[in-house]
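Meet our chain:
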Amino acid sequence: MTRLLILIPALLMLSGCANNWGWYVVDPTTTSGWNNLKFMANGAYYTITMSVTAIIISVVVGLLVTLPGLSKKRGWRMFNRTYVEIVRSVPVLVLILWVYYGLPALSGITLNVFWAGVFALALSDSAFQAEVFRAGIQSISRGQYEAAQSISLNYRDTMRYVILPQAIRRILPALGNQLVYMMKMSSLVSVIGLQELTRAANELVVTEYRPLEIYTILVLEYLVLILIVSAGVRWLERRLKTSDA
């Protein structure tokens, strides 16, 4: 993978010899190229911050939505199913636009572009998180519940100390996938003006008129971020397996 990351930029720079390509706009050896790269990299702060904040909120909301779905009461299960089906049926881009433009008109609550993006992404992802948690919790054997009841644990403590720790270990790869998905979907928030990676690239294209070169760097930026996240999730998986051994 490291060789691939080195090879791709090298091939791109070599191909820049073509007369109709202008890699000088992102050439770090020139002042203007270095400034352009820094301008694009500044958007990474909002991409990372927004994605991490949204995933934390969506995990909490998703877990809260999951628990009614595990109830024996039909009404609670219907609430879970209705929430999941409605929320995950709405495209993320549409939800972002509705939260930013529609929510203020409906409720009088005005959100800046950052928090509108966080709220929309978290709301959209919470439905998927609810299904991930439901699958993880239902994968725990019935004997674990019976063992918790045998030592007089109530439902809350059973979930907290027995079921959820085991379920989280099983669904950790899925949670990592959702974080990767969140980082990619954060690019859609550029439509409401947040200065994240994609918005920064779009603004640079307007001033430099070099979409191929600039969007290629944008692809590499997302590639590096997602590879780092994936490596972090795998490291955490190994740590959890080691702690169980």
About this structure: The two ends are 29 Å apart (CA to CA). Residues 14-18 have pLDDT under 50 and may be disordered. The chain is about 80% helix and 0% strand. The CA atoms of residues 29 and 120 lie 39 Å apart.
